[in-house]
Write a structure and sequence with these properties.
about 200 residues, alpha/beta, Rossmann fold, about 40% helix, binds guanosine-5'-monophosphate
């Protein structure tokens, strides 16, 4: 980790249609590179089993979210699904950069576009493309985290989100997980100009 005045924090933005597998890639990158920290978002959706407050998300009510929004606490925010809000906190980004870390974001395509617009070349915006629409729908169903109604909403949104891929810096097709993870490593190492020696945690 590099601290000090010459440190310029970068942004690694993972974006994909919902269910595109970016959470697995995010976890892998964070485990592999000590130089990376995760921007924990605020969400108003219910906490899922195994999720941890402050590690996966900051879980808030819609009222709390709106109060934060009114205070201009977010760099970007989205109503990703009807009545479900997600946002990136300014304080989160400032904290990670002040600790000398580059930041990994796991956000939807609109949020990714907003960050890219704001931070330009400081970002590597990676679109994680599922091998096909059918595969992503199957993954979402198998995850069994959604009600029938929520599943329908998500599928509708996925179809729209698949059309955004050319707006980002690079695309990774998430088919074979091992290959996907290696590809993500390569892109991150090239962008940040880091290598295995800089990453004591890299296996
Ligand atoms: P999930 O509910 O499955 O955790 O996330 C739903 C979608 O919201 C995913 O595409 C996720 O990447 C996105 N998301 C999570 N946090 C944020 C955020 O802070 N801002 C935006 N714009 N999208 C987010």
């Amino acid at each position: 980790m590099k601290e000090g005045s010459e440190f310029e924090g970068k942004l690694i933005i993972l974006t994909a249609p919902s269910g595109g597998g970016k959470t697995t890639i995010k976890r892998h990158l964070l485990k592999t590179y000590a130089a990376l920290g995760f921007s924990v978002s605020v969400t108003t959706r219910d906490m899922r089993e195994h999720e941890v407050e402050g590690a996966d998300y900051y879980f808030k009510s819609v009222e709390e979210f709106k109060a934060l929004r009114a205070e201009q606490a977010f760099i970007e925010w989205e109503e990703v699904y009807d009545g479900q809000y997600y946002g990136t906190l300014k304080t989160e980004v400032e904290r990670l950069w002040s600790e000398g870390q580059h930041i990994v974001f796991d956000i939807d395509v609109h949020g990714a576009r907003d960050l890219k617009e704001k931070y330009g070349d400081r970002c590597l915006a990676i679109f994680i493309r599922p091998p096909s629409l059918q595969v992503i729908i199957e993954r979402l169903k198998n995850r069994q985290t959604e009600s029938e109604q929520s599943l329908k909403k998500r599928i509708k949104r996925i179809k729209r989100e698949m059309m955004y891929e050319n707006e980002f810096d690079t695309i990774i097709v998430n088919d074979l997980l091992d290959v996907t993870l290696k590809e993500a490593e390569l892109k991150v190492e090239t962008f940040l100009d880091i290598s295995e020696e800089d990453s004591p945690t890299k296996i």
